[in-house]
Design goal:
Shape: elongated
Distance between the termini: 86 Å
Oligomer: single chain
Number of strands: 23
Largest sheet: 6 strands, mixed
């Protein structure tokens, strides 16, 4: 192994893994035999990682390595793998010594080989996938499947035993770890943070998870920042700032950092063994202080900074260029080994240097050494039941949602805040499920009218408190409402909580749910793969309440107007996505109850928090939501024959304006036959071939007709409705109105007018679309246009909408 030259400046030597081994914790806890055993185990993990990247035949190198033994496309990432397995092996030693309940999350991208190797040695992989048995043929299958068509990916994908964090998109390992630790008081979550990952915004913010972990009731997170120095072909920032600056950064975040730095294998094993054990003991001390002595302060939890070479154990140089310790070892260090005899011999020599003297015994099982060093049963991190959360999940105890119903006697006459009763229902759920249900929101629980939750549980807060916090602060060290102004961190916490078998609810402003677009994407992909894995038990659905919606942003303006998250959701698999737009309180309660009972979905519920007209009593709401789409007979007058026009709506404000347009038209044209349809379940618009909730073509045609004009007033961007319904018979006659990026500081009605979803625009549209009205409707159109102009002028003069608009009720 290379050592750093004496001519290198001291400040550079301090940052190099090739300087002599340095450790914050002193000691050599490993005996010579323990050291040799751990080194053998780790080198074997490295051998397995190399086999996964390179080999499709000759898995035990029983014959000289030849080009045909290598995969035709050599794919994978070596750079982070030896560091991950190095950490894993040392955690295993402490699990065995102290009988720890521990799981492992690998944050670095493409780190699967460093996790799959230990998983195979522990036996879990072969238990789940018997064809990947612990013998020569099973090992060949194990190697060949990696980054191979029909096999598995290079991240810790759902196929990886007991993975709950894929690491495909970087930045979420600490928030996932925190969610996993919630309400699991004996659990330790070892979360490895890649130094490239640490440059992402979500990861940088998530160092604050230590402010959300209660030492009295939650598990602990042990972050391990792995500084191997490089990304694809650039240095990483944390690996190039001084140790003092890095240490101060983490102390400023509230952690106690312990450093392990070097490249010499024996001394690094001793340093890591001492450091990990010190951190475990420190975690146990913090727990004891909180649980036995009643200490309520936030601990300065330990963390580890591991500095080791990129691509550790690879050849340091090849053909005059650096490999180990440099960015060239990030992916495949010897990319031409199949065609280049020199690289092939280097690869063979390297692999034989990592290969154990005896991997399997004479009976086809692992050699005794490997069984002795690994934990057994569910103490194996690759078999820990927390990471197959559906196995531990307990059904949520739910109150009867009907008890929170809004008393709606007649449709369209009374106003109510749509989300307020939901808050009361969530409070009761929190009361009934005090150990496996939490509510998450980025500083918006009160704003979103869910603050009845505080009658049961406050916001978690373990930091300093001021006297004025008693005046409505709603803070408590045992709170179960999780608030932080980081959608990324909260979403990660919720995902980790669900993946380990619990239940949760997330509410956020509609415009800023886009912050977690890509997190939603990754989670939906995860669920889709899990649906195809028989050993993955079903988990509670991820429930997102999207509120403070586009049509009621008169005070926040243009920046807060964006309903486009629905377009993102529609991109994902129909097997895992659901979208609901309940128009009133009772529909929202029915939808929420359904979503909270569901499994393996991402449920997106769009409902504004302001006062809105109420339409359906509870029985009618349950029927309507069960169907997901339906004719509102009380708003229609076509029952005796076919309609002249279909007016449809999805969303609270669009429904109100569509009803108001219907009333205007019925007043002007008493013989006009209008069918009014409301959509709660947006995927009803797709055919059954495209989505499980889709309407059969016959039912769709029955509702929307095959030839009549349809005016569809939609909550979001208009093109989404066309995208969902483009294969329908009458699609050419469907005319959609929705948000068109025409907004500012507007009154609600003016904003609707700007985007043509207002009652006047819709009524004029109907006149233009119904053939007979085109001939007789000119005067009515003029009156509608005049009223629209009056409303806009009134708003600009008085700053509010005309009372006739705000006080409108259904007149029939």
């Amino acid at each position: 192994m290379s050592t750093i030259e004496a001519s290198v400046p001291a400040e550079v030597a301090e940052l190099s893994p090739y300087a002599p081994t340095r450790s914050s914790v002193e000691g050599k806890p490993l005996s010579e035999q323990e050291l040799r055993n751990i080194e053998t185990y780790w080198k074997t993990c490295n051998y397995l990682s190399l086999g996964m990247i390179y080999l499709q035949e000759n898995p035990l190198l029983l014959e000289p390595l030849r080009p045909e033994h290598l995969k035709n496309r050599v794919l994978g990432h070596w750079g982070t793998s030896p560091g991950l397995s190095f950490i894993y092996v040392h955690l295993n030693r402490l699990i065995k010594k102290y009988d720890l309940d521990m799981i492992f999350l690998a944050g670095p991208g493409h780190g699967a080989p460093g996790v799959l190797g230990p998983t195979y040695l522990e036996g879990t992989y072969s238990e789940i996938y018997p064809e990947k048995s612990q013998d020569r043929e099973g090992l060949r299958e194990f190697f060949k499947q990696f980054s191979f068509p029909g096999g598995i990916g290079s991240h810790c994908t759902p196929e990886t035993p007991r993975s709950i964090h894929e690491g495909g998109e970087l930045g979420y390992v600490l928030s996932h770890a925190c969610g996993a630790a919630f309400d699991n008081p004996d659990l330790i979550v070892a979360a490895v943070v890649g130094d490239g990952e640490s440059e992402t915004g979500p990861l940088a913010t998530s160092w604050h998870i230590n402010k959300y972990l209660s030492p009295a009731r939650d598990g602990a997170v042990l972050p391990i920042l792995h500084l191997n120095g490089y990304k694809i072909d650039n240095p990483t920032i944390p690996a190039r700032i001084s140790r003092e600056e890095l240490e101060n950064l983490f102390r400023g975040y509230g952690w106690t950092p312990y450093f392990v730095e070097g490249a010499d294998i024996d001394s690094m094993h001793q340093a890591m063994a001492a450091t990990v054990e010190h951190c475990i003991n420190e975690i146990q001390e913090h727990r004891a202080a909180a649980r036995k002595q009643g200490v309520s302060e936030r601990p300065r939890w330990p963390m580890i900074v591991l500095r080791s070479p990129k691509g550790w154990t690879a050849p340091r140089e090849m053909e005059g260029h650096f490999l180990e310790g440099f960015w060239r070892s990030h992916q495949v260090p010897l990319p031409a080994a199949k065609k280049d005899p020199v690289q092939l011999r280097i690869l063979e020599s390297w692999m034989r240097s990592q290969m154990p003297e005896k991997l399997f015994d004479g009976q086809g099982g692992l050699a005794p050494l490997f069984k002795e060093l690994a934990p057994t049963g569910t103490r194996r991190m690759s078999a820990n039941p927390h990471t197959n959360g559906g196995r531990l999940k307990k059904a949520l105890r739910l109150p009867d949602f009907r008890e929170y119903a809004n008393p709606t006697d007649k449709p369209g006459l009374s106003l109510a805040e749509n989300t307020r009763p939901l808050g009361r229902m969530l409070a009761e759920i929190m009361k009934l499920n005090p150990h496996n249900f939490r509510v998450f929101g980025p500083d918006e629980t009160t704003s979103n009218k869910l603050d009845d939750l505080y009658s049961v549980s406050k916001k978690f807060w373990i930091e300093e408190r001021f006297p004025e916090d008693k005046d409505g602060g709603n803070l408590a060290p045992d709170g179960r409402v999780m608030e932080m102004l980081s959608e990324h961190t909260l979403e990660g916490m919720l995902e980790g909580y669900l993946l380990t078998g619990r239940h949760g609810f997330f509410s956020t402003y509609e415009a800023f749910v886009h912050i977690i677009d890509s997190m939603f994407n990754q989670y939906a992909k995860w669920l889709e793969i899990c649906n195809h894995l028989s050993w993955r038990d079903s988990i509670a659905s991820l429930n997102l309440l999207i509120t403070s919606t586009v049509w009621r942003q008169d005070h926040n303006g243009f920046t807060h107007q964006d309903p486009g998250f629905l377009d993102v959701v529609v991109n994902k698999s129909a097997n895992v996505t659901r979208i609901y737009l309940p128009p009133d309180v009772n529909c929202l309660l029915s939808v929420a109850d359904h979503c909270l009972r569901s499994q393996n979905y991402v449920n997106v519920i769009v409902s504004d928090k302001q006062k809105h007209l109420q339409y359906l009593n509870m029985d009618a709401a349950i029927t309507h939501c069960t169907k997901g789409i339906g004719i509102w007979d009380w708003a229609s007058n076509d029952e005796a024959g076919e309609p002249d026009v279909v007016v449809a709506s999805a969303g609270d404000i669009p429904t109100q304006e569509a009803l108001a347009a219907t009333a205007l038209l019925r007043k002007e044209f008493v013989d006009l036959k209008i069918r009014f349809i409301n959509v709660v379940d947006l995927f009803k618009l797709q055919p059954t071939s495209e989505h499980p909730h889709g309407l059969p073509d016959r039912d769709f045609d029955s509702l929307f007709t095959v030839d009549k004009p349809v005016m569809f007033n939609f909550h979001g961007y208009p093109q989404l409705i066309h995208r969902l319904a483009y294969r329908r018979t009458n699609h050419n006659n469907i005319h959609v109105r929705g948000y068109k990026e025409q907004g500012n500081i507007n009154t609600p009605l003016e904003l609707a007018i700007n985007n043509n979803v207002d009652r006047f625009s819709l009524a004029m549209d109907v006149i233009d679309r119904v053939p007979r009205l085109q001939k007789i409707g000119a005067h009515a159109k003029e009156r509608f246009l005049n009223q629209q102009i009056e409303c806009r002028n009134y708003a600009h003069q008085f700053g509010i909408d005309k009372p006739e608009a705000t006080d409108w009720i259904w007149p029939y």
